[in-house]
Amino acid sequence: xxxxxxxxxxxxxxxxxxxxxxxxxxxxxxxxxxxxxxxxxxxxxxxxxxxxxxxxxxxxxxxxxxxxxxxxxxxxxxxxxxxxxxxxxxxxxxxxxxxxxxxxxxxxxxxxxxxxxxxxxxxxxxxxxxxxxxxxxxxxxxxxxxxxxxxxxxxxxxxxxxxxxxxxxxxxxxxxxxxxxxxxxxxxxxxxxxxxxxxxxxxxxxxxxxxxxxxxxxxxxxxxxxxxxxxxxxxxxxxxxxxxxxxxxxxxxxxxxxxxxxxxxxxxxxxxxxxxxxxxxxxxxxxxxxxxxxxxxxxxxxxxxxxxxxxxxxxxxxxxxxxxxxxxxxxxxxxxxxxxxxxxxxxxxxxxxxxxxxxxx
Length: 361
Ligand SMILES: C[S@@+](CC[C@H](N)C(=O)[O-])C[C@H]1O[C@@H](n2cnc3c(N)ncnc32)[C@H](O)[C@@H]1O
What we know:
- The strands form 2 sheets. A 7-stranded mixed β-sheet has the order 2-3-1-4-7-6-5. A 7-stranded mixed β-sheet has the order 10-9-8-11-12-14-13, sandwiched between helices.
- It starts with 10 loop residues before the first strand and ends in a 16-residue tail after the last strand.
- The protein is built from 10 helices and 14 strands.
- It has 361 residues and is an alpha/beta fold.
């Protein structure tokens, strides 16, 4: 039976990386200019949906790019201690059949203990509903009805709710809930791991991937673990751990020095170069325009020299579209001031077979 959803209020609450607020606000203006700006705090923006305005669609939400999560806002609660805040939060949110409770810090410097607050919030649920929510945080299932609590400070919490209809929606605050495992050669391993989870990418073993900007090799390591045959392009040396893998080859050169025909036959192009986004796009364009079948997908990191460069995103995405790809973009929670673009080859639609004239007509 479908859960009874709480009422949708006038406000949406979106969270983002601290500092990304202007970029998120600019995306909101581009995607849903009818929304009015509400609160603006480091890591949190709220938007008012005008009376009679359309609900935020999944497409709108994806178009926000810098939003880690967007929830229906119930408002804020204040209090002198956790017990008082817990009571106020449940009064404000109402008694619904929550499947889970997500608690996170509005931004890392905020004071608060999300795990302890979650425990207090679970204990504060109506006894007949308490059993639905795992006592200890466990992975949230897709489709769960989630009560959200973003800790704004020791005496103030934001309250909201959402249905976890995407992988990132299952993570408190849309923040990837894993850290870099021991033995990985760079944080790029974790970024790619988050990208694979966020976009539900199917990297099939045996496929060929090339990475532009491969050193020291964390992303290549993740691709190798997925069973791919990997070529890393970088003038800098790749870590030994990766370099000696039997399915890894390094071309020690700049991407532009690779001959076009050498790019033939790759299924995936990954790019993570610390250069201007336009230069990254030029390098990717060469890789996808090699003779032969174009790669089925691209996973590109576009590093933003300044936040204001995010305004160029539509032009950048248009280049992928021009090469025949469908794009999705998101600022990953494990990345810095950058955007991850996943582009998958747009299916070529064959015209339907021409109807044959029935005999005798
Ligand atoms: C952020 S690091 C890449 C991290 C890497 N993806 C990993 O998984 O560890 C950026 C890399 O881009 C490389 N780079 C910059 N310009 C390049 C170019 N024109 N061609 C190839 N590599 C380039 C740099 O040498 C540097 O190693």
